[in-house]
Amino acid sequence: MSAEPALARTPLRAIDGGAPATPRYGVKRAPLGDPTPLACTIAKTAVEVILGGGGLETLVRWVANDVRESLAAQHSLSRRAGHRGLEAKIERARVCRVSHRAAEVSIVAAVRGRALAVAMRLEEVHGRWLATVVEIV
Q1: Which of 3.40.50.10860, 3.20.20.370, 3.30.70.330, 3.10.450.50 is the CATH number of 32-136?
Q2: Do residues 12 and 21 touch, judged by C-beta distance below 8 A?
Q3: Is 62 helix (H, G, I), strand (E, B) or coil?
Q4: Cβ(120)–Cβ(102) under 8 Å?
Q5: Across the chain, which distance is largest between two alpha carbons, in Å?
Q6: Which of the ends of the chain has fewer CB neighbours closer than 10 A, N or C?
Q7: 95: how many CB neighbours lie within 10 A of its CB?
Q8: Which neighbouring-strand residues pair with 131?
Q9: Taking the complete model, does pTM exceed 0.90, yes or no?
Q10: At what angle do helices 65-80 and 36-50 cross, to 10 degrees?
Q11: Distance (Å, whole) CA 53 – CA 118
C-alpha cells in the first residue's frame, strides 16, 4: 500500500473539466504591459494620503510593505497636524523601462496650484507591478 495521500495522486484538471492541466512553474511570462496608468493611480493616491486624505488601504496590493508603512506614518503626521486631505491631479508622467522586470517613473502632481514631484520604482513581482519605492517631494 502506498503512503501517499489520495489527493497527491489526483491529476490536476482544467477549469472546464477537460484534460489534466500541467503546472506552470518555470514558464517564462511575457513582459508586463505599460505601467503608466498604475503609476499615475499610485502617485495620485499616495499624494492624497500624505496630505491627510484616505485611500491608503487601496494601495496595499500595489505597494511594498515598507512603502505602505512610510505612507501610513506620513498620513498620521498630517492628520495630527489637522489636515484632512486635498485632491491631487496628475499633470505629467514619464516612464523609463530599465529592464523587462523594472520601470522607473517620474510624475508631476498638482495640489491647489502647487507642484509636487513623485519618483517611483515599479518591479515585477508574481506577474504584476509592485511599487518598491515611492518618494514625494
Answers
A1: 3.10.450.50
A2: yes
A3: coil
A4: no
A5: 75
A6: N
A7: 16
A8: 63, 122
A9: no
A10: 30
A11: 17
Residues, the chain: 137
* Contact by Cβ (8 Å): 43, 35: no
What amino acid occupies position 65? Answer: N
Number of H helices, E strands in the chain: 3, 4
- For residue 130, give the H/E element and its range: strand 128-136
H or E element in which residue 124 lies: strand 114-125
Looking up cell 523587462, which residue turns up? 100
Look at residue 40 and give its three-state secondary structure. Answer: helix
Number of Cα atoms under 13 Å in the Cβ half of residue 121: 10
For 102-113, give the DSSP string: EEEEEEEEEETT
Give domain limits for the chain: 32-136
pLDDT by position in tens, the chain (length 137): 555 554 455 455 545 555 555 556 666 777 689 999 999 999 999 999 999 999 999 999 999 999 999 999 999 999 999 998 899 999 999 999 999 899 999 999 999 999 999 999 999 999 999 999 999 99
